[in-house]
Amino acid sequence: MDVTGAQVFINEEDIKQKILALTPEEARKLGVKHRSTLKRMKDRIKENGKINTKTKQVEKLVNTI
Predict the structure, then answer these.
(1) What is the Cα–Cα distance from 12 to 14, expressed in whole angstroms?
(2) Most buried in the list 22, 38, 45, 59, measured by CB within 10 Å?
(3) How many domains does the chain have?
(4) What is the band of 44 on the pLDDT scale with cuts at 50, 70, 90?
(5) Interatomic CA distance for residues 5 and 39, integer angstroms
(6) Residue 3 maps to a domain
(7) Spacing of C-alpha 7 from chain mean position
(8) DSSP 8-state secondary structure symbol assigned to residue 49
(9) Is 62 helix (H, G, I), strand (E, B) or coil?
(10) What's the superkingdom here (predicted)?
(11) pTM, 2 dp
């Protein structure tokens, strides 16, 4: 097996709670340009409890939170 780096595990529950607690102003400071993007992320978390951590916007939040 070729391993290029260490695995990084993300605590999804922690990330979900932090995203749900964000205000649009805080999200804008962290790199999310549009309020509607934050709203869609929050709606997905509330609806089915899942979040795709591979999207560009979620990665911005994960790296800065």
Answers:
(1) 5
(2) 38
(3) 1
(4) very high
(5) 34
(6) no
(7) 18
(8) S
(9) helix
(10) Archaea
(11) 0.79
- pLDDT tops 80 at residue 35: yes
Q: Whose structure tokens read 């560009």? A: 56
Is 39 a member of any domain?
Answer: yes
Q: Is residue 6, in this structure, part of any structural domain at all? A: no
Helix (H, G, I), strand (E, B) or coil at 6: coil
Which residues neighbour 61 within 8 Å (Cβ) at sequence distance 6 or greater?
15, 18, 19, 22, 27, 30, 31, 32
Cα–Cα distances in angstroms (integers) from residue 48 to residues 16, 51, 52, in the given order: 12, 9, 12
CB 40 within 8 A of CB 19: no
For residue 45, being part of any structural domain is answered with yes
CB atoms within 10 A of CB 16: 19
Using DSSP's 3-state secondary structure scheme, residue 52 falls into coil
* Planar angle of CA 37, 39, 42, nearest 5 degrees: 110
> What's the chain's Rg over C-alpha atoms?
13
Q: Mean pLDDT score of the chain, rounded to an integer?
A: 90
